[in-house]
Amino acid sequence: MLLTSGGSDWISGSGKAEKVEGGYRITARKVFTSGAPTGDLLMTGAVLETQGEPPLVLHFGVPMNSPHVKVLDTWRTLGMRGTGSHDVQIDGHIVPEAAVALKRKAGEWHALFHIIATTAFPLVYAVYLGVAERARDIAVGLSKRRAPDRHAIENAGRMDTELAGARLAHESMLEVVRRNAPSATTINDVMMGRQLVERHAIASVEYAMQLAGGAGFYRAAGLERCFRDIQAARYHPLQAGPQAEYAGCMALGLPVERVF
Questions:
Q1: Which domains does the chain have, with CATH numbers?
Q2: CA neighbor of 195 nearest in space, from 179, 174, 173
Q3: High-pLDDT (> 70) share of the chain, %
């Protein structure tokens, strides 16, 4: 089982790589490492700083059974608790030179990340779309236990309209993947879709809570979990500010290599 660290291994990289004989000594703390308690291999990276040269991010795998790797019990969160996205501490693990898959400039988009971001984020946001769809079904079921009034009908309509917006936005992300041509342009298109899925999915779940009424406040209904889980859609890159900056630079013909 492969692991990645969504919170630490973005464009700028994180952690320290120190050159030693035959390879690199790694010191790092990787956050949001989903599946950490059961994973086998962490696909990650660290930053190598050499005097007089720009910092580089090295990409490599680290076996989770290394004595220099420890899973920290940090995943105590508002939602998405089942992902087990604990922090992983790497303290002195040696990565051989031959095991480094890629070296790239830190803080700058690379073709590898054009591929990763174009293909991965439609998968990630399919989860949030699914959470919103589940919330919708629960809310409809709860609302049918009582005679609907005008306000309940309106909430149901607003909920389904927002959910339709999330579905359309997600389909636009999939269409970008089907082009099979990762680039700065596909990043822009996918991230606009990602932002719209976030907005519409969260709004849909909020209307689901209103439609369900007080019954949705009980854990037994399952709706409060959807409400907690959907909040995590806010925190993946590109978040609202960087996404707007990236889209604006693309629209105005400005460079985007360092916008993330």
A1: 2-105 (2.40.110.10), 111-252 (1.20.140.10)
A2: 173
A3: 100
